[in-house]
Amino acid sequence: MSIKASDQPLVGIIMGSSSDWPTLKNAAEVLQEFGVPFEKKVVSAHRTPQLLYDYATTASERGLKCIIAGAGGAAHLPGMTASMTLIPVLGVPVQSRALSGVDSLYSIVQMPGGIPVATFAIGSAGAINAGLFAVSMLAADSPGLTAKLEAFRKRQTKKVLESQKELEV
Ligand code: RP5
């Protein structure tokens, strides 16, 4: 499935490298499923620091309501982004080759008091939940999104209950 970003995004998805996209695309798919407009961009804390500065410092005025930031290894992208904007930053630790994402997780979760980053699980589960968390935040001002979340939860519960039948054949 090709994932297209919208003209007027409410959520920014940024990642340290295009190699992070297979993980972050899980967040994009959630936003697309809920009809939430988003943008996606490679922004590296270390390799494109000026781009990171420009992105983070203009995020709010450009209308973004939150940023999902994913990175692996020395994953400073979510924390540095959070340090330069007041909008919520949701950090997704990407599973790294050398240390399986534990390095990414620790880099993202161990923020100093005063600059929060909401940190999710390593890998695709974290990206899915970051997408759902963004939808939940936006749902606070959107009865339509709340209804979609309720329907999503019901479908999910039904699917799990039905999976029991597979054990019984
Ligand atoms: C991080 O380094 C990126 O977020 C990525 O997870 C990791 C490896 O990047 P590449 O070498 O694949 O570009 O900055």
From TrEMBL:
It is an enzyme of class 5 (isomerase). Catalyzes the conversion of N5-carboxyaminoimidazole ribonucleotide (N5-CAIR) to 4-carboxy-5-aminoimidazole ribonucleotide (CAIR). The keyword Zinc-finger does not apply. This is N5-carboxyaminoimidazole ribonucleotide mutase. NCBIfam families: purE. PANTHER family: PHOSPHORIBOSYLAMINOIMIDAZOLE CARBOXYLASE, PHOSPHORIBOSYLAMINOIMIDAZOLE CARBOXYLASE CATALYTIC SUBUNIT. Keywords: Isomerase, Lyase, Purine biosynthesis. Its EC number is 5.4.99.18. It catalyses: 5-carboxyamino-1-(5-phospho-D-ribosyl)imidazole + H(+) = 5-amino-1-(5-phospho-D-ribosyl)imidazole-4-carboxylate. SUPFAM superfamilies: N5-CAIR mutase (phosphoribosylaminoimidazole carboxylase, PurE). Pathway: Purine metabolism; IMP biosynthesis via de novo pathway; 5-amino-1-(5-phospho-D-ribosyl)imidazole-4-carboxylate from 5-amino-1-(5-phospho-D-ribosyl)imidazole (N5-CAIR route): step 2/2. GO terms for molecular function: 5-(carboxyamino)imidazole ribonucleotide mutase activity; phosphoribosylaminoimidazole carboxylase activity. The keyword Isomerase applies. It comes from the Bacteria. Substrate binds at residues 17, 20, 47.
